[in-house]
Amino acid sequence: MRSKLILTIQKNRHHFIFILSVILSFILIYNSSSNQSTQSRQVANSIAIFIKSPFSRFNILIKSAEENEILREQLLVLSLEKESLLEYEAENSRLKELLDFKRETKLELVPTKVVNMGLTSTLQSMTIDVGYDSGVNKNDPVLTPSGIIGKVAAINKNSSIVQLISDSDFRLGVRFLPSGSTGILRWRSNNICDVREVYKNSSINVGDKVVTSGFSDFFPAGLPVGIVTSVANDRNQFQKIVSVQIKDNLSSLLFVFVAINEELVQ
Amino acid sequence: MKKYSLILIIVFLVQILLSNILSFGDIRPDFLIIFIIYFAVSFGSFRGVIAGFSIGLIVSYFDSGVIIGLLPLTYSIVGYLGGYLKDRNYRLGQFNFILISLIIIVFSFFIYTYFNYEYLFYNEFSRFILTWFSITLYTLSILAILQFIVPLRRT
Fold first, then answer.
1. Which of B9, B14, B20, B62 to mutate to test the interface with A (most CBs of A within 10 A)?
2. Are B56 and B102 in contact (CB under 8 A)?
3. If contacts are CB pairs under 8 Å, which of residues 125-154 in chain B contact chain A?
4. Rounded to an integer, what distance in angstroms lies between the CA atom of residue A253 and that of residue A249?
5. What CATH fold (topology level) applies to the domain A172-245?
6. Which backbone phi and psi does A92 adopt, to 5 degrees?
């Protein structure tokens, strides 16, 4: 009887190992957010960073020369703009003092390098080389000069995992300028996002700027997000669906900024 | 087996270093799933499942964006079903052999997309289908190119 059982198992071992692997996979899926899994991930992430480091350095070198030229041009334009802005700032603070305004949230931008973009078929996260040692907190916004690209999902000593705007679970409260209408943004595909929960009577046009609404506890108001590319009415509901283009190509990011909320840190 | 271990290391490095460069928007090719189907066709279901599960588990820990356990599940299915194609290339015929391997990959990507985009599956099915097909087609096109170099039915 026992030998018959062993023989059956031996004969059907591929079925047994498959069932076992499916069971184990489901156990892992339902425990994927446990602390132990996160710690193991951070160790694996540091190995991936180590493997990728020579390659990413080479990549940075290639793009640096091209970027340097563009930055030089931008520097000239910005230094001219800065002069006029400094004047406006002084005037603004004088007026605010007069009106006794509450101090606005101040953001500190931490420059960081992208060290890992993941391995799977869909781009949903990346790893950056700053962690809690640099003052980064969970849920801090991650952005480039063109706009928001994600938020910090997990932090380590010297690295953080960023949940990208392209993750299907990522949501962002946004505001359209100049109309001031608001909505909830989520990724569609190929740098295009949909904004829903927008009132049908709101006036939104192609080319309007999209910024963060400030309704979220993590994203302060006014951070750039993208540009409106199309506006459609949802026939079955009292809302508009607005398509917004994100300027950055997420898969080729080399440097990003983490916006640290100084008030939250204090 | 030694040959496959060496290929696995190369494929793993290619996945880490090149998948991003070869991305179309937010869609990237999955070289590892291609490796697993080749491996399973060569060594059968038993080894295919073990390889699929182990590779999936390692990659899950390396990619912070994916649910841990999803890749072991997907790759195990590929290893298990791919193993059935071992030594069956003449019995099945070229067309059926290729068709079955395509179905295996399409099905495994369905599982992967379902768990990753569960929200779309229940709320925007057409977008779910589009995501599923774009992920699948990209990897399948690489598999198709590989057929001219190393045909799957001759492994």
1. B20
2. no
3. 127, 130-131, 134-135, 138-139
4. 7
5. Thrombin, subunit H (2.40.10)
6. -60, -45
CA angle A98, A103, A106 (to 5 degrees): 140
Contact B25/A at CB under 8 A: yes
The domain made up of A37-165+250-265 has a fold known as Thrombin, subunit H (2.40.10)
Per-residue pLDDT tens digits for A146-183: 888 888 888 877 788 888 888 878 888 898 888 888 88
Q: Domain residue spans in chain A?
A: 2-30, 37-165+250-265, 172-245
- The ipTM, to two decimals, is 0.86
Tell me, what's the pLDDT at A266? 45
Question: B58: distance to nearest CA of chain A, Å?
Answer: 8
Q: Is any Cβ of chain A less than 8 angstroms from the Cβ of B89?
A: no
Q: Which residues share a beta bridge with A172?
A: A185
pLDDT in tens, A95-117: 777 776 555 556 788 888 887 77
Its pTM stands at: 0.68
